[in-house]
Design a protein that fits this description.
By secondary structure, this protein is mostly helical. Helices cover about 50% and strands about 10% of the residues. It has ten helices and six strands. The strands form three sheets. The chain has a two-stranded antiparallel ribbon. It has a two-stranded antiparallel ribbon with strand order 3-4. Strand 1 and strand 2 form a beta hairpin. Helix 6 packs antiparallel against helix 7. The chain is elongated. The termini are far apart.
Length: about 300
Amino acid sequence: MRTFMRARGTAALSWITASVFWGLGFEEVAAATSAKEQLRRGWDWLYRKTADWLDKRTMQLPTPELTEVYNVNQFFCLFYATGRTFDTEELICATSRSTRYYVSAAYWDRDSLLWAFPTILRADAALAKEVLTYVFTRQRQNIGVHSRFIDGTMLEPGFELDELVAPVLALQAYLSETHDEAFLQERFVQDGLSLILTRLREARHPDTALYETFLQPTDDEIVHPYLTYDNVLVWRALQLLADWRPAMGFPAKLNLSNYIEVFRLLKVNGVGFLGMFLNSLYFYGLYLFIILSVYK
């Protein structure tokens, strides 16, 4: 904090710089000692620690303009898409922490895992692992539900297929980046993937390997239940689960044989996801779709 101060008997002004520390806590001792810890460390130490943290996560791109734009948005994403609760100090994810957002500090699988997670992972793999742990524990019970409070309870109901498989795609990104295969062995991860498969079974068409949704990725109610984009995500998620099965030690109750049909449908003769596209046309009528490959 800087203040002006006029010396007695003179018109000259002098600068006085002071460091002001304040803390938060459940009661006065916690708040006061939080501020005291900062006072003991001092401004220089706190500043250096913060600058070092930012420097380690700053990306250098070909031009200064790109570097600035990327990093401003990267840190905005980190600070607004994640946070820690005041009562338990638990990491949480949120679409936004801004009070300008109509459901500030609410959670969407899509927003956190398909949109924000790639940036979080690139900036801080340890933080990305915490995000996945939060998703597969606190948020697990309502995976695929439109939106939830940060404690995992339902906020806005409505099944969204893309949100149901978003944790699988985020997990694959994390494993590709870190090679942390032990994370697949965590019981809460296996329980979460098992739950996703159970809910996929409930969304499956009775006669063919297509999966319906109630809300579109735009959060609007569907016009047609079998969306191409959503089903391509399902196809990729089932591919990953089939690949992981030997390493995961899935419990006996988890049986992927029910999902092999969709895998065959999309892989026969190298057709890839074109098979999903053609089956979607069967349900949609004649529509024009632009399909982007999910192959890396």
